[in-house]
Amino acid sequence: MDLNSIYTELIMEHSTSKHNKRKLENPNIHEKGHNPSCGDEITLELKLKEDIIEDLAFTGQGCAISQASTSIMIDLIKGKPIEEALKLTETFIGMIKREIIDDEELYALEDAMAFKNISNMPARVKCAVLAWHTLKEALDNR
After folding, report:
1. What's the predicted TM-score (pTM) here?
2. What pLDDT sits at residue 76?
3. Fold (topology level) of 3-140
4. Nearest residue to 73 (alpha-carbon basis) of 17, 35, 23, 5
5. Where are the alpha helices (DSSP H) in the chain?
6. Mind listing the pLDDT tens digit for each residue in 45-88?
7. Which residues have CB under 8 Å from 132's CB, separation 6+?
8. What is the CA angle 101-66-84, rounded to 5?
9. Count of H-run helices and E-run strands, the chain
10. Pairing assessment for the beta strands 40-49 and 29-35 based on DSSP bridges
11. Sheet containing 29-35: which strands, arranged edge to edge?
12. What's the rounded Cα separation, in Å, for the pair 101 and 77?
């Protein structure tokens, strides 16, 4: 099995997974993200404790790529300090824009590296980065 099919499987698995798709009790932050070009809509809910992202979840609907990217992002940043979450967000967006191509740097993204080749499909890029831009907005506006 090659890396691309492992990544495809990972994206499909996360697109249907419900473990991060839920409402949080008493979140500190709600942030809506919308992709007008395809109609993807998500709402991120975050629970911050000091400068740690204690919990986060999402609701909404969209294509498999936006749903999977959101779920994988949540798995990656839950429990991390805000600064680290913002750095990972920059790395992910940099990977998608092909500004960061060093695998050593990308390894920090763990499963989110599955989206590395999405930059070859310009129509899908906005789907992949929706949650990451929404998270950045949520944390920048806190």
Report:
1. 0.94
2. 98
3. Sufe protein. Chain: A (3.90.1010)
4. 17
5. 3-16, 64-77, 82-96, 103-106, 122-140
6. 999 999 999 999 999 999 999 999 999 999 999 999 999 999 99
7. 69, 73, 89, 92, 93
8. 50
9. 5, 3
10. antiparallel
11. 29-35, 40-49, 52-61
12. 21
